[in-house]
């Protein structure tokens, strides 16, 4: 039977996960709506080592994850609680949690194979520059031919009809007409919703060619169908249980 390699319970709901594929580090943005507090965590996907947890910035609520690259977590602030517009950049060492640099006039545009592409929010029209993620220093203007999109090694499941894909080993009937399905290393991974005694639940199953080898209850008592519930990164199945516990399985 398959077992979880990483099982880590965060203090509140995970709002976002970001993976740095160069260092195999996963970062979590955890939001406590009641306390209006956001914190960040860093875990190595190869070893399971928790580099840091409950890391907070000076701005306790209006901040979030922007990107992660080569061992550095890039954060942003929000211009206001009412809108989604981002403001400023804060770079955090992915192992120590120490702030490497910050800049409140620049903003993040997107990530390239060579690092983050940023721009000065005070200037129009917008002009992109490649920045050194370790120092925040501008390296040169953006060059589309070489600053291409990086490979993220992430595979997401397909939404397929439960009628088309019949899997006898799954012990419960799906609710609705759609399940999420992915094949990896001769394994089939299935996520579905079910209605149990009037309660809507979300479950995860892993099957080999013959048997059901892993299952987990992801959420219960939910009010509506949830979106994609898992992903594959390289040979790791990654998902959240009850929206606050990180599970990682090596497949």
Can you offer a commentary on this structure?
The chain has about 250 residues and is mainly β. The protein has two domains: about 10-140, Lipocalin; about 155-235, no CATH class. The chain contains no helices and 22 strands. It has strands at about 5-10, 15-20, 25-30, 35-45, 50-55, 65-70, 70-80, 85-95, 100-105, 105-110, 115-120, 130, 140, 155, 160, 180-185, 185-195, 200-205, 210-220, 230-235, 235-240, 245-250. The strands form five sheets. Strands 1-22-21-20-14 form a five-stranded antiparallel sheet, with no helix packed on it. About 25% of the residues are buried. The mean pLDDT is about 95.
Number of strands: 22
- Count of individual domains: 2
- Compute the separation of the termini in Å: 11 Å
- In CATH terms, what is the architecture of the largest domain? Beta Barrel
Mean pLDDT: 93
Beta-strand residue fraction: over 45%
How many helices in DSSP terms? Answer: 0
Share of helix among residues? under 10%
Question: What do we call the CATH topology of the largest domain?
Answer: Lipocalin
Which value, in Å, is the CA radius of gyration? Answer: 20 Å
Unreliable runs: none
- SSE pattern: EEEEEEEEEEEEEEEEEEEEEE
**CATH class category label of the largest domain:** Mainly Beta
Q: What shape does the CA trace take?
A: elongated
**Structural class estimated from helices and strands:** mainly beta
The main sheet orders its strands as 1-22-21-20-14
Largest sheet, described in full?
A: 5 strands, antiparallel
């Amino acid at each position: 039977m398959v077992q979880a390699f990483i099982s880590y319970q965060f203090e509140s709901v995970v709002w976002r996960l970001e993976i740095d594929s160069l260092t195999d580090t996963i970062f979590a943005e955890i939001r406590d709506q009641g306390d209006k507090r956001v914190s960040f965590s860093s875990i190595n996907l190869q070893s399971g080592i928790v580099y840091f947890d409950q890391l907070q910035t000076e701005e306790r609520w209006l901040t979030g994850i922007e990107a992660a690259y080569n061992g550095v977590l890039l954060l942003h602030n929000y211009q206001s609680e009412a809108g989604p517009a981002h403001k400023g950049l804060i770079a955090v060492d992915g192992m120590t949690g120490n702030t490497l640099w910050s800049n409140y006039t620049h903003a993040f545009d997107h990530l390239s194979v060579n690092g983050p592409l940023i721009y000065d929010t005070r200037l129009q029209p917008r002009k992109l520059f490649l920045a050194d993620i370790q120092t925040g220093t501008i390296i040169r203007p953006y060059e589309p031919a070489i600053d291409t999109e990086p490979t993220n090694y992430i595979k997401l499941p397909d939404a397929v009809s439960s009628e088309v894909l019949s899997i006898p080993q799954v012990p419960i009937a799906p609710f609705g007409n759609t399940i999420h399905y992915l094949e990896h290393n001769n394994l089939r991974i299935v996520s579905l919703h079910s209605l149990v005694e009037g309660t809507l639940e979300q479950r995860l199953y892993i099957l080999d060619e013959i048997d059901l080898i892993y299952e987990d209850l992801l959420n219960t008592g939910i009010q509506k169908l949830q979106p994609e519930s898992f992903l594959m990164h390289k040979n790791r199945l990654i998902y959240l249980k009850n929206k606050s516990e990180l599970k990682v399985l090596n497949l």
